[in-house]
Amino acid sequence: MKRLLSARLPSVAPDIWLLGTLVLIATLGLVMVGSSSVAVADKLAGDSLYFFYRQAVYGVVGLVAGFIVLHVPMQAWQRHTFTMLGLGLALLVIVLVPGIGHSVNGAQRWIDLGPVALQASEPARLCLILYIAGYATRRQTELAASWAGLLRPIVFLVVACFLMLLEPDFGASAVLLAVAGIILFLAGARLFNLVVLAGLGGASVAALVMSSPYRMQRLISFSDPWAHPFASGFQLTQSLIAIGRGHVFGVGLGNSVQKLSYLPETHTDFLFAIYAEEFGLIGSLVLIALFSIVVWRGFVIAGRAIEQGQLFGGFLAYGLSAWVVLQGFVNMAVNMGLLPTKGLTLPLMSYGGSSLVMMCALCALLIRVNLESTAAQREVAR
Amino acid sequence: MSEDTTTNFTPPRWRAWVILGLFAVFGISLVVRAVDLQIYDEAFLTHQGDMRHIRTLEVPANRGAIVDRNGRPLALSAPTESVWAVPGAVLGAPDKIAALAKSLGMDPAALEKRLAQYKSRQFLYLKRQLSPFDAHQVMALETPGVFLQREYKRYYPAGEAIAQLVGLTNIDDQGQSGIELARNGYLEGEPGERKVIKDGRGRAVDDLDEYKMPKPGQDLKLTIDSRLQYLAYRNIKQAVIDHKAKDGVVVMLDPRSGELLAMASYPSFNPNDRSSIEPAGMRMRAATDVMEPGSTAKPIVLSGALNSGLYDTSSIIHTRGWFQVGRLTVKDELNYGDEDFAKILKKSSNVGAARVGLSMGPRGVWQDFRNFGFGETTGSGFPGERFGVLKDFFTWDKVETATASYGYGFAVTPLQLARAYGAIASEGKLRSLRLILGKGADMHPPAQQAISPGTAKTMRGLLEGVVAPDGTASRAAIAGYSVAGKTGTARKISSDGYHMDQHRALFVGMAPAKNPRVVTLVVVDAPTRGSYYGGTVAAPVFSKIMASAMRILHVPPDNPKMLTAAAYHPNRGG
After folding, report:
1. A interface mutation test: which of B3, B4, B86 has the most A CBs within 10 A?
2. DSSP B526-572
3. Which domains does chain B possess?
4. CB contact under 8 A, A243 and B10
5. B34 touches chain A (CB under 8 A)
6. pLDDT for B1-15, tens place per residue?
7. Whole-complex ipTM
8. Is B295 a catalytic residue?
9. Which residue ranges run through the membrane (chain A) (predicted)?
């Protein structure tokens, strides 16, 4: 660890668009956690800023984590991708062990660490993405050439997804698969093979949904929430009302009514609805734009890294930036009723320590890739 | 530099563009959806939100007070707080329920059961009309889902003395009986409205700009003089108790205007404690009970006879104690022999009155009663006031004409009887009775001339004789004032015919006799202890009430001779 931290940062300027956008999203997130949680915080903790303070502390922890990650060279990560795979799978197994895993609302997703609980799937997914990026770098030729080269990492992914579905955490496994698929696709996996796998994946998702009444219920209520606005469609209609009330300019920060014990999960999964109510269509468009900037800069950074021959950093940057924007878009789509409800947070914004700290680490990795490739570019130019 | 640069492989660029393109599609569909929701569906969604958020709260209006003619309060509204709850929210804090129940004076188990029963409701009254102090004790517990609502509670400072007249409101501040019912529209205000935004737990979090001020109701002034009302009630209550009677009524009116000064009846009830109310106490008997007036009808018949010009005060009626009319034997207590009108009244001679009535004929007597307002409402406007019972004269035979002449075979309300005597007391003018003064009063038809002023004056003179020491109502006399009046001792009728042992004791009179200021009717129904005559049961009540009333109203004494005599013998009988 000490050795890692002593490594110096490449002395080049980071991508100001990416860094600025991430800081903006995170700041907006902290403000919205404070604003959207006043009613629920007052009810649960008797202090309307309870969640705001906690999220601010998580933010500091996240900055520290990000600072550490920023000092770790890509090579170090690349050397330890198998360790990462092991660590990720281990986390997903541990959380399922009775007595260690901690269950909330019927989902066993947390590992109890005394004062805080760790949501296992958050670091586990990051570990697995690191592994996939490493694999794609190592076995690029096989990946592009054969079924075997594609299926080897897929096996581990399926195991990880299976473990996550046992919790159950459907959203997390879906995002992991999608991000892994994007990395493998961009690393040159054969399109035909990927399409076949995606078809198989789609079929198994359909089977999963059919087999579980609560997922089926969500799917049905999502397609017509106004059929049962006080039962199965309750959460979604409340979310849509919040978004609609925002109109063009929003009701103003702090003025949301829907957050006052109407819409559940305002500070976590449905943060966007309250944001859209308070900031209106202008706010919605700004947020969509901000996440778009992240993926745009992420891909620029990844492309530059690959140009510089830093394949691992490039693949990783593709995956991580895709992850942020994919999860952000899916969350917004769920809030707006375009996709059925999943337990997915709005990255960097929703309340939750594990998610925020993991996202900070993720961003630090992106910036590290950016710094290394820029430094290499400058080297070449010299 | 790096190890992997050795492969120097560059994946095809188009793949990255495909992924970016997919994200672009995703992003654009989000933009489209956001525009859709926040522009096109905004009206629908905001309306759906308003349906959930906005509540119209009623702001209760203060109900007008009822006051007596001197402005003394008879009914007042005081602000109270009602405690209501969102049952689900209260059940969410089970540790608070016991303390809440205690502060409301309820059984915790019963409260919890009730909350559970109405769990799906958003509104449940827990306790209504608490004093502001008690209500704030309840709120100090800070139980979630418990709220206050301002309501007004009606208080009746004059209590049982005027309970049936003023009446009651229900818990929703609506008049249920008496003046409260009759003048509900005038007394009740128009509630205001307040539109508020509620949070999901039912608390008002913000006021919208729409606010309609409540319009308070108007105060209503009665013609009643509460000093006379207390006086009348106290005395009739005492008389009913003393004589073990069924009930009693006193009506006092100002004959010069038709204004009712007091309307008391016993039994009554305490309007401030509704748990004690019994139906018998609720009736305003002066307006809602009918009775045969008995001998008190004789001055009405004789007035008509005088007014017709067929008789004058020197006319002599020959009697011998009884006479036969068809199947009916009309009897007097004694054989009074030849009688003039003064004697008929003084001795309350049935025979004399019947002979006069028969000479006027059915139509004459009936018309006379009509002239004095029998068979029609008095105009008081009191809810449930009765017309009395007065059959058409063409159904009357001689027997009925004879009995009607001394007050049987028809029925009047106490108000009607008092009103008729009001005409004798004031130049023969039959006036509508009034209960309301000033704004809010009904339009009344002009006074009708029942008899000529001269006849009225003559009749007052004759009725003074009744109160003279040798009259049937000597005990109605009051110190310092001339009194005119007539007793009545009516046998009570039931479905089996007339009771031999149940009577109604009446006295109706006026003072000062020369220029009457007050007409007072006293009815004591079914006295069972001691005497039962109008002259011995009702007349003394009249005397006590009127003696005080004259003082209260600052009426100058007109009979100094009697003043001295009575000063030494205030309760002198005759």
Report:
1. B4
2. ---SS---IIIIIHHHHHHHHHHHHHHTTPPPS-HHHHHHHHH-TT-
3. 54-86+149-220 (3.90.1310.10), 226-567 (3.40.710.10)
4. no
5. yes
6. 344 444 456 677 889
7. 0.94
8. yes
9. 51-70, 82-104, 143-165, 171-187, 194-214, 279-299, 311-330, 350-369
